[in-house]
Amino acid sequence: MAYSRRTTALVVVIAAYVLSFFHRFAPAGIATELAAAFHTSAASLGTLAATYFYVYTLMQLPTGILADTVGPRRIIVAGGFVAAAGSLLFALAPSLEVALAGRTLTGLGVSVTFIAMLKLFALWYDERRFASLVGLGMFVGNLGSVLAGTPLTALAQLTGWRGVFVATALASLAIAVLCWRLIEPEQPGTLKRFDRTVILGGLATILRNRATWPAVLANFGIAGSFFAFAGLWATPYLMSVHGLTKLQASHHLSLYFLAFAVGCLAIGSLSDRLARRKAVLIPAAAVYLACWGVCLFAGPLPERLTFPLFALMGLATSSFSLTWACAKEVNPSALSGMSTALTNMGGFLGGALLQPLAGALIDHAWNGTVVDGVRIYAPEHFTAAIACLAGAAALGFLGACLVRETRARNQWQNPA
Questions:
Q1: Whether the model pTM is above 0.90
Q2: Which residues on adjacent β-strands are paired with residue 374?
Q3: Is residue 63 within 8 Å of 343, Cβ to Cβ?
Q4: Three-state SS across the chain?
Q5: Sign of the torsion angle spanned by Cα atoms 94, 97, 101, 104
Q6: Could you list the pLDDT tens digit for every one of the 416 residues in the chain?
Q7: Are 257 and 230 in contact (CB under 8 A)?
């Protein structure tokens, strides 16, 4: 593929990733609207938001296998059409059950995007640029999460949250068509033959490799707590614990996402330049854990402190973007789709488990106050949930300490 065509194709693929990030964090920006529309509790709202993560988690290994066999082009196009259907169904949902179905379809559709993008990076570029490219992809992709903050809140007030998701359905369709036209079919020999024995053998190789699992644990703890918090509970937490308005909370959320995006770009480039993974990953994971300590023990803070706290937290959260390189570089190069998918599965499993768990803990502490059909939570109702997310961050830090240093090179050696 010509360089200019390849670049254009990657721009479109990253645009699909922007949409996946938007869908991932959109419930946080419209949490109160969703609670009012479906008359739901915190636990049910957590389940609605986490449905995306359930299907995303289950799809990671199948996506990795498909990326290594049928290729990224087909799966990303199919995913775009499914995501469009899910977004439209969510927008038109008359009940919580239909909204759950729409959210599930959306998660299914966008679940293939990131792994397909990583596979394209592995096929088209030198391995020494992998972490930098992942950081760049996440930097641009995080525009979707930034859009899920203040812009979504403002747009939802103008058009209603349903109109926003009709627009995202149309955008998904357009991106799918562009991907089909711009990404050329894979050349013969670049992908493994779809053979069950070969696939199962490759998967077993990755699963048996002890060096794979620390990266999965780090992704589970850091990304999982990030998805659970920023994906739903950050806005209610800021409004209740720190006394912010909804608009002020959305500004914090947008700042968090922007700092995270910048961090992804910087941390990947720094790691590649130093040819080190652990020396960058461990300090950043430690800062992330420390930020959770502040959230847990500091109590109500003024905006002059919550803004820099969320900015620092966003920068430190980006540490998990190195975990895909850590997993890829200790496994066979031909299995990069499966190894990165397994690592990605850790973070989304964390989000799937922690998002409703946090909601259940908040509900358990709730004192029964309801205003206009919406449950009202006091600051102390969030304590157990924040402690749970801080514990997950501690697991992420432990995983970061256990990863193998690869010096930005593939270290795989067949034990046989």
A1: no
A2: 371
A3: no
A4: CCHHHHHHHHHHHHHHHHHHHHHHHHHHHCHHHHHHHHCCCHHHHHHHHHHHHHHHHHHHHHHHHHHHHCCHHHHHHHHHHHHHHHHHHHHHCCCHHHHHHHHHHHHHHHCCHHHHHHHHHHHHCCHHHHHHHHHHHHHHHCHHHHHCCHHHHHHHHHHCHHHHHHHHHHHHHHHHHHHHHHCCCCCCCCCCCCCHHHHHHHHHHHHHCHHHHHHHHHHHHHHHHHHHHHHHHHHHHHHHHCCCCHHHHHHHHHHHHHHHHHHHHHHHHHHHHHCCCHHHHHHHHHHHHHHHHHHHHCCCCCHHHHHHHHHHHHHHHHHHHHHHHHHHCCCCHHHHHHHHHHHHHHHHHHHHHHHHHHHHHHHHHCCCCEECCEECCCHHHHHHHHHHHHHHHHHHHHHHHHCCCCCCCCCCCCCC
A5: positive
A6: 455 777 888 888 888 988 888 887 787 777 778 888 888 877 788 788 778 888 888 888 888 888 878 888 899 999 999 999 999 999 999 988 999 999 999 989 998 998 888 888 878 777 777 878 888 888 888 777 777 777 877 888 888 889 888 989 999 999 999 999 888 776 555 555 556 677 788 889 999 999 999 999 999 999 999 989 987 889 889 999 999 998 899 889 889 988 998 998 889 889 989 999 999 999 999 999 999 999 999 889 999 999 999 999 999 999 999 999 999 999 998 787 788 889 989 998 998 899 889 989 998 998 888 777 777 889 999 999 999 999 999 999 999 999 999 988 888 876 55
A7: yes
Name the residue with tokens 């499966």.
338
Spatial neighbors of 270 by CB under 8 A, at least 6 apart, are 280
List, in order, residues 6 or more apart from 45 with CB less than 8 Å away: 27, 31, 34, 35, 232, 359
**Residue ranges of domains in the chain:** 7-182+192-402
**Residue owning tokens 């999965």:** 216
> CATH: 1.20.1250.20, 3.40.50.300, 3.30.1330.40, 3.40.800.20. Which one for 7-182+192-402?
1.20.1250.20
